[in-house]
Amino acid sequence: MKMNWTKYAVMAALIAGGAVIVTKFFDGAGRSSSTTSRIVNVTVPDLSPVAANGQELFNDNCAACHGENGKGTEMGPPLIHPIYKPSHHADISFELAVANGVRKHHWPYGNMPAQPHITRADLQQIVRFVRETQQANGILN
Fold it and tell me: What share of the chain is helix, strand, coil (3-state, %, to 5)?
């Protein structure tokens, strides 16, 4: 039986190419390196009084992981991002995340623990800040 070396050479090249892609785009923990550094530029608009209070609350309570004004960090995703637009993550999603925590699902970061120190009234102001800032950055329903 005659071997078709061309076919095997092509298969070897594809396997080697796949290994390069995996090495380039995934870190040692299997996370996509293209999303491990998701920090975005955020333009903060002139905010309503409620959203301005929400900005202060956000930066005091959420920025350690989600970055100042929601731009993201190496520890947590940006909230001024199309993934969090209202048609995909309604306001109730933020309430549930703060109350119950969130399992990792969109990003390579770990789980978000519940944030019981954030009151519902404070959270409503935080969400208002996030929504007004999203809108100013072109993130709509």
Answer: 50, 5, 45
pLDDT for 31 beyond 50: no
Sequence-ordered strand ranges (E) for 1-141: none
Domains in the chain: boundaries: 1-34, 49-136
Helix or strand (DSSP H, E) at 80: none
Give me the sign of the Cα torsion angle 19, 24, 29, 32.
Answer: negative
Predicted confidence band at 34 (pLDDT cuts at 50, 70, 90)?
very low
pLDDT given at position 70? 96
CATH topology of domain 49-136: Cytochrome Bc1 Complex; Chain D, domain 2 (1.10.760)
Predicted pLDDT of residue 5: 57
pLDDT at 127: 98
**Across the chain, what does the average pLDDT equal?**
81
Report the largest interatomic distance among the alpha carbons of the chain, rounded to a whole angstrom: 80
Cα 63 versus chain centre, distance: 13
Instruction: State the Cα–Cα distance between residues 37 and 39, nearest whole angstrom.
Output: 6
How many angstroms separate the first and last alpha carbons of the chain? Answer: 62
